[in-house]
Amino acid sequence: REKPAMSGGDLGNQFGGHFFNLLDAKNYQGLSQLFRQNSIVSFEGNNVQGMQKIIGLFQAFNKKYPKTKHQCTADTLPTPDGSNLVFLTGKRLDHQHSRIDTAVLISATVVLKKTDGKFWISNLIYRGEASGQNIPSNDMKVGAQFVGQFYKIYDSDHKKLGGIYTPKTVMKYETDKLQGAQMIMCKLTKGASDHIETQKRTKLGFRSVTFNSVKHEVKTLDIHPGAGGLLIQTSGFLAADGSTQGVKFGECFVLMKGQSGW
Length: 262
Hints:
- The structure is a single chain.
- Helix content is 26%, strand content 38%.
- The chain has helices spanning 11-24, 28-32, 51-64, 141-157, 181-188, 192-200, and strands spanning 35-43, 46-49, 69-78, 84-93, 104-115, 118-127, 132-134, 170-173, 176-179, 214-226, 229-240, 247-255.
- A six-stranded mixed beta sheet has the order 2-1-6-5-4-3, covered by helices on one side.
């Protein structure tokens, strides 16, 4: 029967704990139950498809890092194709990084599907130490072009980002869940939430960012076909308002094709 870690409640955090417990314990039988033959996995930029190759990839990872312990938190959103998009961030302890202050910062994107009452993974992207671009085929280069344009606009004039969002777009920014271009741009624009609350005499469930500008340095890019479009994960460093002290960030996108383009 289905394990409790894969059902009900906060699906993302339950799944993250369940998956990484299996990986850290080298429980390949348990891991194999989470995948199908059409599942796609990218681990530190290495791509495989199919259950046997996926388990082989995990075995190679455990051989390189024989003693791991992952700690993570999750954000979960629905995808256009009815799946669940889970974004995991946290730390990895291993034989080379045994103290929490030296732990490897990790990010992982998972698309969970449910068939016959059981959850399974259609897509998994994992990044820790390795950097670089992972674009498996030429038809996915549009995803890399989107990422380049997205961060270029974000860093130069983020107010021009509004055109890439639709009324159905859903964003999770830290702890805030937002839907629609207006609310997303309100979140990304300093002071906008105060302005709307004053103008409409209503209370929003979130506050706008506290910085005027930001610069992104993208270190990793992974692209999959999945979730009804292109599944994209990025990570790197960002610095706000001209700061020279960048902080690590990670995020994922589902890029959809509309009538006028992506």
